Amino acid sequence: MAKLPDSKLIKELADLLDKSSLTEIELEADGMRIRVARQGATQMVTSQQTIAQPAPAAPAPAADVAPAPAASANPASNPGAVKSPMVGTAYLAPEPGAKDFVTIGSTVKQGQTLLIIEAMKTMNPITAPRAGKVTEIIVTNEQPVEFDEVLLIIE
Length: 155
Known about the structure:
By secondary structure, this protein is mainly beta.
C-alpha cells in the first residue's frame, strides 16, 4: 500500500487552486499522483488506489486576502494588454527578495523584461512588446497563469 502524502500538501494545493484561475493542479512524485480540481473534490490517485478527500473549506475572509488591483472592465480587450505566451508561474522579480522588474507607473522600453514565467523549470522572460507606461499589473508574484491570460497593461 502506498504511503499517503502529508495532508498539509493537499491543503496547500487546494489553497493554490482557490487563489488562481486554474481549474486543476496535478502533482506526481515517487509513484504517487495527486490531482486537485475545482469540480468539487480533491483526489489522490496512486498506481494501486484512489482516495477521495473532501473539498477544501471556504476561502479565508476577504480581510485576510490582499486586495486585487483595480481591474479594467475587460483587460483582454485593452490594446495595451500583455498576455502570457504560455502556462506557468509568474514571477514579478528576478529572484526572491529582489525589486520587481516593473511597478504601476513604470515607463518601459520595447524589449524590456516585465516579468518571468517559469514553465517546466525554465525561466522565460516576458518582454514589453512596445514602449509605454505600466498602468495595471493584473498578476501577483508566484501566481499560476494560463496561456493568453492578461498579465499587465502598458498604455
